[in-house]
Specification:
- The chain has 109 residues and is mostly helical.
- It has one domain.
- Helices cover 94% and strands 0% of the residues.
- Helix 1 runs antiparallel to helix 2.
Length: 109
């Protein structure tokens, strides 16, 4: 029973790590895509240099804000995952402790 629990826990941990990595990659990809799209749009727009520089500065700030929000969301997701794992570990620990106590009481009888 213990080996099965360990294998299941390892599988869940790998799955969570894969989800975190996918979320991180999505946030990075969105940030890069946004930056490249903004840069391309600004460089090909028929505006004066001063207007283009202002637009680049404004859009860079917007892109940085989007990346920041995405990063904060990813961090929150990781925090929630960590809390979930902690809760499950405490639950499993309590369950195993109760099982050990039950078995020790049975051996005393």
């Amino acid at each position: 029973m213990l080996i099965k629990d360990l294998l299941e826990r390892n599988k869940r941990e790998r799955e969570k790590a894969a989800r975190r990595k996918a979320a991180k990659n999505a946030a990075i990809g969105a940030g890069i895509g946004t930056a490249l799209g903004l840069a391309a749009g600004l460089l090909f727009a028929p505006k004066s240099g001063e207007e283009t520089r202002k637009d680049i500065a404004e859009n860079a700030k917007k892109a940085a804000d989007k990346v920041s929000k995405g990063t904060k969301k990813a961090v929150e997701n990781v925090k929630h995952s960590v809390e979930d794992v902690k809760g499950k570990i405490l639950e499993a620990k309590s369950k195993k402790k109760a099982e050990v106590e039950d078995s020790s009481e049975e051996t005393k009888d």
